[in-house]
Amino acid sequence: MDLIASMPVFTFAELPLLDWRLATVYLAAIGVCGALMAVLGHVARREDRGEAWRQIRFAGLVLAPTALLRVFVEGWQVEPRPLLSAAFSLLDLTLLAQLLVAAAGILAANTRRRTALVLLAAPAAAAVFLGLIGGEFTRPLLARNLPAAACHLLLHVLLVVLLVHELMRGLIGERDQAAERTATLTAERDVLRADLGVAQEDLAQARLRGEQALEITQGASRRARLLEHLVASAVELQSLRGRQDLMRGAVELVGTLFSFRRADLYHWTDTRDAFVARATAIDGEFEVPGTGAQATLDRATYEQMVHPRFRVSNSYLVPPVSAQPAGAAADDGQWPPGQHLIVPITDPAGALHGFFKLSEPGEDSGPDLLHIRYVELLARQLAAVLEGNEVRERLAACRDELAVANDRLQSLGDLRSNFIANVSHELRTPLTSIIGYSEMLRDRGESMSPDVRGEFLAVIHEQGQQFREIIENLLDLERMEDQSARVDRAECDLAALTRRLAEDWRQKAEQRDLDFQLDCPASRMSLEADPVLCQQLLEHLLDNAFKFTPPGGAVSARIFEQGTAVRIEVQDTGIGIPEDKLHTIFEQFYQVDGSSTREVGGQGVGLSICRDITSWHDGRIWAENMPGGGARLTVILPRRPHVVLPSAPASISPVFHDPRLSLQRLLHWVSENLGVHAAVLMRVDQPREHLEVVAAAGLPAGQLQDLRLGRGVGLAGRTWADGETRLETPESGDVLLSGGGPVLCVPLPFEGEVVGVVAVRDRHDGQSFGPDDRLLLESMAPRLVHLLQRYESQESSLRDFAAIQSSLRATTRVGILPRTDVASVCHEICLASARRLGLPGADLRHLAFALRYYDVGLSTVPPHLLNKPDALTDAERIQLERHVQASLVTLAPIKPPPKVREIILHHHENYDGSGYPEGLAGEAIPLGSRLIALTDSLRALLQRRPWRPAVPLNDALAEIQAFAGTRYCPRLTGIFLEEAEKRRRHIEDLRQHADDGEDLRQPAATHPVQQSPRA
Amino acid sequence: MNQRILIVDDEAPVATLLEHTLRDEGYEVAVATDGMDAMNRVHAFRPDVVIMDIMMPRLDGVQTTRLLRRNRSFADTVIIALSARTDQAVREAMNEAGADLYMRKPFTIARLVEHLRNLLDERTRTG
Predict the structure, then answer these.
(1) In this structure, which topology does domain B4-126 adopt according to CATH?
(2) Per residue in A37-62, is it b (16+ CB within 10 Å) or e — as a string?
(3) What is the CATH number that goes with domain A817-992?
(4) Span A78-130, pLDDT tens digits
(5) ipTM strictly over 0.85?
(6) Cβ separation B60–A596 shorter than 8 A
(7) What is the second-level CATH architecture of the domain A489-636?
(8) Which of B10, B21, B122 sits opposite A1009 (nearest CB)?
(9) Could you give the CA distance from residue A37 to residue A57 in angstroms, rounded to a whole number?
(10) Chain B, 20-59: which have a CB under 8 Å from a chain A CB?
């Protein structure tokens, strides 16, 4: 109570200076302040949940009602005033302290310091002001209550100190924090600064490197672009046809690609002693080169230009004529006016074709070394293309030949019968004399003088010799056709062989009154070939020339070496060869004077044999007419076989052009273009299991023949497996490619699959392969693929051809023999019977066809079985019976209609079911088969057999009648025999005069004298 | 007067044989070595019979026969083709050209002579 009594107790009523209304306003203001603080505190709390703000809100909440309560207490003088007043003062102080603490907290924590300061300073200042001025200090002072005044003063000072202290503490804390943050930041900044330094350094280096890289890239891309142009232009060159177009294309390309204002292309004159400008491009536009002295350049001038001191790479920088002694003008990097660049055009073998002359470059410094190399590359490509062009023309010629051969196949039947007619004629000619003269000797020999008799005998002998010669030729031919003649290669000396034969030829020429010249070197001329075949080749060539030259003419033969080949030329002054027949004279049995005029003997066999022999030695043969009359035959034989070929389908006839030759030529072209010794072309075989060699050059033949490589095996197998170009040295275990230097191996893709591989090895110049070689070989790949595809299709169609051909051959051979007249009458009887039975036209045609070919298969039966008089053993019988099926197999390629097949199959069936092959009986046997059974029997009976003479007609008919119902259909037998009876006279006539002269039995009266001499 | 026979054949042995034989048979015989030669001789010789080979240089038998038949004065001449060609095409061509008879080589002389007589008899009877 003492404390309370000592407390400064005051009321408004005690205030001398202020009335209670003012006090009310003052307290209300405090209340409003409190409310405001509560709201503010609430809002702030929602915003950032600060502890200080929570205290402010609390203070506000308490302050506002207490202030209002005090208004009420002070206004109404509620007792006991001193106690309440003391309580209020305590409350005031507590609240104030709390406010201050909160303010300090806010100041310390809140970043929005200024706002907080304003918010807090205002009530604090108001409280201090009110406390001091409002009377709590003044009033006790005025009342002389000093202890109370001092107490108030102390209290307020304490409050202010507290406030200041709190403020200061907040500020200091903040400053420390700031200092700390600054320190951290400074440290961070230092680290960053250090990093930055390193980064900057890196950046500088990177920039430097980038600049370098850019430079390199630019160079590379420039080169790549050029190279790309180059390849594109090379391809473009490939597509050009004809020499002039090629050259024109080439100068335009060189001019534009390498920006020369003027580009000229010089090429050999025809005499090869000077060069002439063939094409000129100015600013990339083609111009017809001028003519006259300016356009030509003799050899000596060229030699002067390509002096070694002007040499740059493989080209020559030739200074203007006036400054020539100065030489090497490119050194100062400037291109003096009048200087030009000479780029020789040489092929991989080093032969000079011509040169580019380039002047007035687009840049002052002229082209750099790289550009010059590119021009050289293009020049090489041009040389290759010029050569390729030639090859292409030759290929085109081959294609034409193939077309001609195809046409010929269509008239194969004609050719065959023509052959038979020819051979028969040739055989009959000497036979006529032999028979005629011997007949005379026999009949009138006694009455002849010995001289005449001797003369006759001499004729017989001479004609007999000729007969033998023909037979031998035919046998030769047969041997060739069967391909039983294998080429037996050995080292042989063609010159010696020729000299040995020369004497014979001289004699022959003398006999025929011909002038004969032989030009053959005295030295050795070795050749890897079959000596026997070579001799045959020479003899046929010479015989041919002698044969076609009339007496008084001349024949000359020339044999000489030409590069890697031997060339044989035989020239005559005979009738020459019609231009349209130049290619066909090598066909079998072909004689130019064809139909019926006959100049000389022979069956047209000789040249066909020559062609075969030549092609077996990888050589060429052709014929041409000489301007002054006469013909020349030329044979080129390579001195050693350079190309291995896969084993050929056995029965492909040499009549047709071989597609493998095209592949072989193409591979040659590849190896020449790349300048390599060895090249090999492989294809993936049909089941896609192996790689097989299709053509090869410069590799030992033994290891290639029939070689098969699996996928992934060896360098080539791996190239097939992953389709990647390779340049590496094969392991020693690689059967195909080891044994030389590094191999460049390129896959041949077609429609996403690798269909083959081409590989080259050993450059002529001993250098290793570079990217240009790779590019070149890859650019050739599509062409190789194209040809491979064509090769395959041709191969299969040739196989078909061969099958058809052998079928035709079989039918022709068999067809000739039985077509004697007895047989044709039997056929007539058969068809007449069929007509009487009312067979429709189509069936008749089938029957006629079957009748002609039903026993083609007999050719598969050994002759001793056919001619065996005794009974056959079981095995023999089965062999014989199989001929029915053999007939069908033989005929299959010419696709006989099903009905024909059926008739042929069943023509040995018997009516009672005892025949073969199926044991059919009665009407189940096709009608045609039953008729043929009758026909075949009648024919067989009427013809002579080795073991019996021909059966007389009556006996034959009786025998057939006897088997009606067992072997033969009884109904058909009746009709057949009736038809046979109708032709009795005819059959007997034929049998009587079977081997005699025939008269013209023409039913139509085309001529006044029509009667048969026997009539 | 003897009947005249012209032998046209480029094979000397055959021509000689025919010449001997037919001369022995009593005919008047001349020999031409090919069709061209024959055409040069016929006008002077006026043969009753021509024995014609077919395969000959310069002018073959078919053409020669055709030329002869085109001339009225040889319309009735007997032409016997004698050839080693046996193929149907040549025989037909010869028939069409106007030959009376086609005989194959080798031939028997007796039969040739028989045919020859028959044909000549025929000619005398009708002509």
Answers:
(1) Rossmann fold (3.40.50)
(2) bbebbbebbeeeebebbbbbbbbbbb
(3) 1.10.3210.10
(4) 555 555 555 666 666 666 666 666 666 655 555 555 555 656 665 666 665 55
(5) no
(6) yes
(7) 2-Layer Sandwich (3.30)
(8) B122
(9) 6
(10) 20-21, 24, 54-59
